[in-house]
TrEMBL record:
The species this protein was found in: Paractinoplanes deccanensis
CDD domains: AdoMet_MTases
Keyword check for Metal-binding: no
Protein keywords: Cytoplasm, Methyltransferase, S-adenosyl-L-methionine, Transferase
Taxonomic lineage of the native organism: Bacteria, Bacillati, Actinomycetota, Actinomycetes, Micromonosporales
EC number assigned by the record: 2.1.1.77
Main location: cytoplasm
Protein name per Swiss-Prot or TrEMBL: Protein-L-isoaspartate O-methyltransferase
Principal EC category: transferase
Signal peptide from the UniProt entry: none
Subcellular locations according to the entry: Cytoplasm
């Protein structure tokens, strides 16, 4: 795939690229940041010597570059999601940007191409070293990569903070920046928030690898339900949407469910192509699922109760006019570990 086609594919991912950001994607060599290859979608490993390597690199897709056994622990994010986050950051030449989660270094290279001076921090020493080497190969000079915990901010000040790992809240040291863009945990996913003056607005739905340490100390929602752990579920309420909700509208409903119910999370449901929204009961084996067509299967000892709560969420979302996730505004309050507090979402309000 040509660089021009790559940029066009990013645009087709729902991003209106500024000319400067389009030029950055067209000129920064993504292959320089994956010299050891990455995992293909089929689980095999793509190597630089493979004939399809560059075609895979220049697609709007995540490139998983490190696994712990079978669990991805480092990657180059999906370019269209990178673009949405960078656009929300509103970077201007000369801005000092703190990046939490160096990954391959590619995101920092894009920011540097926009004129930013970037300090990138990664908790994994080998990941930080490889990102540093990749930036050197790509001849990107205005990025400094440090090994460290993103909770503890390096010497600033910083104009912007961008976070490329999933967090439960914001570190106190980030709040001095004018804009913080971060994927903040919500109902088993990590929707990206752009936070200005301690008020967050949703930029995009997303799922990220989770940070370590104090940044994930506050978890108001249950962890996602693992495959094969749910009891037998039967339908308690029939379909409401014909045709079923498109993926983005389903994510809108999902976000609202997380605002209104703290048992909302993600479930891998058998025979479903996508993960689903569930209200998970205390045993983590039952509860109620809300499917994209609005039907509600439920199971477990409290199936009737959870099915009623799930149905009420769909009703409430419809009564509110099907608000998109971007319509919510989020306020933050101190939470997490008292010895290392973070600022977590505490109140939501619809902006329209």
């Amino acid at each position: 795939m040509s660089r021009e086609a790559y940029v066009e594919e990013i645009r087709q991912g729902g991003v209106t690229l500024s000319p400067e950001l389009a030029a950055a994607f067209a000129t920064v060599p993504r292959e320089a940041f994956v010299p050891d290859g990455f995992q293909r979608r089929d689980g095999t490993w793509a190597k630089p010597t493979d004939p399809d390597f560059l075609d895979l690199v220049y697609r709007d897709d995540v490139l998983v570059t490190k696994l712990d056994h079978r669990t991805p622990v480092s990657s180059s994010s999906q370019p269209s999601l990178m673009a949405l986050m960078i656009q929300a950051l509103a970077v201007r030449p000369g801005h000092r940007v703190l990046e939490i989660g160096a990954g391959t270094g590619y995101n920092a290279a894009l920011l540097a191409s926009l004129g930013a001076e970037v300090t990138s921090v990664d908790v994994q020493p080998d990941v930080a070293a490889k990102a540093r080497d990749a930036l050197r190969r790509a001849e990107i000079a205005s990025v400094r990569v440090e090994h460290g915990d993103g909770y503890r901010v390096p010497a600033g000040p910083f104009d912007r903070v961008i976070v490329t790992v999933g967090v439960a809240g914001l570190a106190p040291g980030w709040r001095d920046a004018e804009i913080v863009v971060a994927p903040v945990e919500h109902a088993g996913t990590h929707p990206v928030l752009a936070v200005t003056d301690d008020i967050g607005a949703v930029v995009s739905p997303a799922g990220f690898m989770t940070a370590a340490g104090p940044l994930t100390a506050a978890r108001p929602f249950p962890a996602p339900a693992a495959p094969g752990t749910l009891a037998e579920f039967t339908e308690h309420a029939g379909p409401r949407f014909d045709p079923p909700l498109e993926p983005l509208a389903y994510r809108d409903l999902w976000y609202a469910a997380g605002v209104w119910n703290r048992r909302a999370t993600l479930a891998a449901v058998p025979r479903r192509e996508q993960n689903c929204l569930i209200l998970l009961d205390g045993t983590r084996t039952g509860g109620a699922i809300i499917l994209p067509d609005g039907s509600v299967p439920a199971g477990g000892a409290e199936a009737a109760r959870y099915a009623a709560e799930a149905t009420a969420i769909v009703d409430r979302w419809l009564d509110a006019g099907r608000p998109p996730m971007g319509a919510w505004r989020v306020r933050f309050a101190p939470g997490g570990d008292p010895e290392a507090p973070i600022y977590v979402p505490s109140a939501w309000k619809l902006s329209r």
